[in-house]
Amino acid sequence: MIGFTRIGRIAKDPQSAMAFAIDMTNFIKKKYEADITCWARLGGPTGQIVWQTALVDMAAFEKLTQAILADQEYWHKVEDAEGLFDTASFEDGVWNQIA
Reduced to 3 states, what is the DSSP secondary structure of residue 43? Predict the structure, then answer.
């Protein structure tokens, strides 16, 4: 099993940033039938959003990421969220489940 996380820090307007995060999560769930969740970090540092998904293997991960990278609707949504997140803070993680 491969896990993927994306963590981003909210730059301004937390309510709008969280609304965007929920909308983007639902968009990816519906369009790609991905098992993705979205979390607001409660423990320090606060003001972060975390997206998580698990995929069967690296081939499934690559297929999903390639589809999203080519998706103009996805990128229009990202453009609409301009300024809500500190883009320099985004951190992606790819994890291999061991147990």
Answer: coil
Q: What are 24-36's pLDDT values in tens digits?
A: 999 999 999 999 9
30 in helix, strand or coil?
A: helix
Whether pTM exceeds 0.70 = yes
Spatial distance between the Cα atoms of 9 and 68, rounded to a whole number of angstroms:
21
Question: Long-range contacts made by residues 75-79, C-beta under 8 angstroms, separation at least 24?
Answer: 77/20, 77/23, 77/24, 77/27
Q: Which of 98, 96, 99 has the alpha carbon at shortest distance from 4? A: 96
Pick the CATH number of 2-96 from 3.20.20.80, 3.40.50.2300, 1.10.10.10, 3.30.70.100: 3.30.70.100
Mean predicted lDDT score pLDDT of the chain: 94
What residue ranges of the chain have pLDDT lower than 70? none
